[in-house]
Amino acid sequence: MRFDVMTLFPGLVEGVLGESIIGRARKAGIIELHTHNIRDFSTDKHRKTDDTPFGGGVGMVMSCQPIYDCFMNIKAELPEGKTKVLYMSPKGRTFSHGVARELSEYDNVVILCGHYEGVDQRVIDLIVDDEISIGDYVLTGGEIPACIVIDAVSRLKDGVLSSSECYENESVASGILEYPQYTKPRSFMGLDVPEVLLSGDHKKIDRWRLEEAVKLTRERRPDLLLQHPEIEESLLPKKKKRKYKKTDLEQRDEF
Fold it and tell me: Distance (Å, rounded) from C-alpha 203 to C-alpha 210?
């Protein structure tokens, strides 16, 4: 899968996504990441990429020309396949695990990172397919949100993580929050690992993990349980089915 990021600060993106799991996935060729400095495409003699807003107001707005030319350069290099162009914006639809899954189906994802007071609407209308927000707050630029999107989408691709189980059973991805995790030592500062995790009884362990996950979700994110009522219902005692004897069936036929 290929990601192209249009930004004024390519070093910020490279710094975040050049390490750890995503860095290794890039080295292995599973993920491609290309950063493009919008300033390199400015036709202004001072490499200017912004200007004052029409209608007045504070701040500066990123100009159409450098962004559009940057995008056209990327477009000429993109391999064949499904392509999605995103603009990281607090006005966009909220990013979620579902959106990450949706984006993971694309071959190429191009991301525009805004700065200052935003981007001239005309270039958004011309090149952008979707606007994405990572939450109801405003950051200094779109680079960190872009990194979050790329990280979340990349780990859904085969080979990035050791197993699909690594992301299918995690918080939110499974539909609810994840259960508490423990490792050695068995006791730390007077706090012990729950005995059930030491029992070796995997059926009991699975039950405990589900109960803890539902409990945590009920406390912190009850909205998730409303979306997945079947998970909480799975903890309810199973109704005993009545076993009918042959004589019972014969008596019923008499009515």
Answer: 11
